Amino acid sequence: MPTIPEKPVLLTGASGALGRQLARALATEGWTLRLTDIAPFPDPLPARASFTKADLNDGVAILRLAEGCGAILHFGGVSVERPFEEVLGPNIRGLYHIYEAARRERARVVFASSNHSIGFHERSETIGADCQFLPDSYYGLSKAYGELMGRLYWFKHGVESVFVRIGSCFPEPVDARMLATWLSYADLSRLMQRCVLTEKVGLSVIWGASNNARMTWWRDDARDALGWKPQDSADPFAGQLAGKVSDSPVAERYQGGGFAAMEYSRPSDSHG
Ligand SMILES: NC(=O)c1ccc[n+]([C@@H]2O[C@H](COP(=O)([O-])OP(=O)(O)OC[C@H]3O[C@@H](n4cnc5c(N)ncnc54)[C@H](O)[C@@H]3O)[C@@H](O)[C@H]2O)c1
After folding, report:
1. Residue minimizing CA distance to atom 7 of ligand 1
2. pLDDT tens digits, one per residue of 130-168
């Protein structure tokens, strides 16, 4: 089984929290990486990596960057809730540029989607990867849009995609919700390797969470087909974090947590 992709891999959002982790981990595996971000890359450049500063709004720059690449790990863009006009450029137009580049290069896209694309499912539900999109924010809506764009490019042009609905990818879980949603950096990096190295992925969805006992919300994704088995777990943090809940009934009701509660104004008599 190969461990190094035949062609270079483009990583967007390389200067962000997850991009920096992936740049280091994948370079250590011997991968040739093309890194890009609108912000400077803050670390020493890993072996075999190049960095080019570019705005996802710049379609020509993205086409150039993707030239000769076999896969695009798309981690760049607005990564929290922001006003619609701020999300629009990086996350909507930028995504179109990524998919156009992938079409031209016949490259695969691995898209850093989010649990916030389905954040208005209730915590009492268990949902499969084919569940309804219920975005909890403009940010989450941009992730649902990205997954739909991937479907368009697969059916129309045969561009493969893995949509990774990342839960909470941080060094450690920091509250009770993350006892369910936490994804370790190491599990993320192993997942990216499977996303790129698996021979065929077609359209695949992965719930991006580690092996957490409290993860009862999400099931039925493509992990077996990709050969990804998360090895880390939030469980050892349960003792110290179980009581660390928010004071918002809306945040506690929905899977998206605080994003669902942000600027929430639904009258209680409109609940079915
Ligand atoms: N960290 C998590 O728990 C989590 C959860 C769900 C989804 N995600 C997704 O994973 C990806 C990475 O997350 P992160 O935590 O590293 O976020 P981050 O904000 O640290 O990184 C995002 C990067 O995108 C870059 N960027 C923003 N606008 C850009 C533009 N116009 N052109 C080029 N680059 C631009 C930023 O400079 C930043 O370096 C994001 O797409 C995020 O939505 C992360």
Report:
1. 114
2. 999 999 999 999 999 999 999 999 999 999 999 999 999
Buried b (16+ CB within 10 A) or exposed e, 132-167: ebbbbbbbbbbbbbbbebbeebbeeeebbbbbbbbb
Pick the CATH number of 9-270 from 3.40.50.2300, 3.40.50.720, 3.20.20.140, 3.30.470.30: 3.40.50.720
* Cβ neighbours of residue 164 closer than 8 Å, sequence gap 6 or more: 110, 111, 112, 113, 191, 195, 206, 208
Domain residue ranges of the chain, discontinuous segments joined by + = 9-270
| Interatomic CA distance for residues 252 and 261, integer angstroms | 9
Q: Best substitution site from 72, 75, 189 to test ligand 1's pocket, by max atoms within 8 Å of Cβ?
A: 75
Per-residue pLDDT at 1: 74
